Amino acid sequence: EVQLVETGGGLVQPGRSLKLSCVASGFTFNNYWMSWTRQAPGKGLEWVASITNSGGSTYYPDSVKGRFTISRDNAQNTLYLQMNSLRSEDTATYYCTRDRGFAYWGQGTLVTVSS
Amino acid sequence: DIQMTQSPSFLSASVGDRVTINCKASQNINKYLNWYQQKLGEAPKLLIYNTNNLQTGIPSRFSGSGSGTDYTLTISSLQPEDVATYFCLQHSSRYTFGAGTKLELK
Fold first, then answer.
1. A43 to chain B: nearest residue by CA?
2. Which residues contact A28 (CB under 8 A, 6 or more apart)?
3. Are B91 and A35 in contact (CB < 8 Å)?
4. Residue A100 has what pLDDT?
5. B49·A106 Cβ contact <8 A
6. A94 CA to chain B: closest CA distance, Å?
7. Which of A44, A47, A108 sits opposite B43 (nearest CB)?
8. Residue B80 DSSP class
9. Mean pLDDT over all residues of chain A?
10. How far is CA B32 from its chain centroid?
11. Phi then psi for A29, rounded to 5 degrees?
């Protein structure tokens, strides 16, 4: 069974940093692209970052480019999202998703950016 | 960037009704269109991938169709457990979600 478990969310002040993790199990991690997607409270979904299966290439929308960094450790079956210079508009539940079609999702971790 | 326009935003229907939800892309997305169901407090769940392929374990009352810029999710006979918000996702060029359709029982 595919499982994705996100951790690392919490309350953080504007301008500070936070690193999210997603531990994967139930599939061969290094065979799949992985991504992060977020959902602000009561709002829709927004793609945040993607990484190829080898980790050699990464992709971001303009809204987070230069502030967020996606990475992965294939030996540990773990996906990361380093978030710097956080803003109030980054407040959301962050989901880890598997493959290029987002077939599987974790349960999410809530990030609240507030002073 | 590709924009996705989803309609309607809100839908009220009765058990047994046929329900359709639409997504229109700002350019041809070559059938790279997925549909998701999200129940309150849960993560999204994939229903349909690449326009018309039913994800494993999803009831056959869900179906998808479309091509080019226009895509449709159909629920052939609405069930109480289908109350949820539905999102489309284009994955032809990067990723863009539709704004969602909240489906409620009448």
1. B99
2. none
3. no
4. 84
5. no
6. 10
7. A108
8. G
9. 97
10. 13
11. -55, -45
Q: Name the β-bridge partners of B19.
A: B75
* pLDDT band, residue A26 (cuts 50/70/90): very high
**Per-residue CA distances from B6 to A101, B66, B71, B86 (Å):** 19, 14, 9, 10
Of B42, B87, B94, the CB nearest to A59: B94
**Which chain A residues are Cβ-neighbours of B96 within 8 angstroms?**
47
Question: Cβ contacts (< 8 Å) between A33 and chain B: which residues?
Answer: none
Q: Dump pLDDT digits (tens) for B38-56.
A: 999 999 999 999 999 999 9
pLDDT band (50, 70, 90) for residue B5:
very high
Pairing between β-strand A58-59 and β-strand A68-73 as defined by DSSP bridges: unpaired
**Mean of the per-residue pLDDT values of chain B:** 97
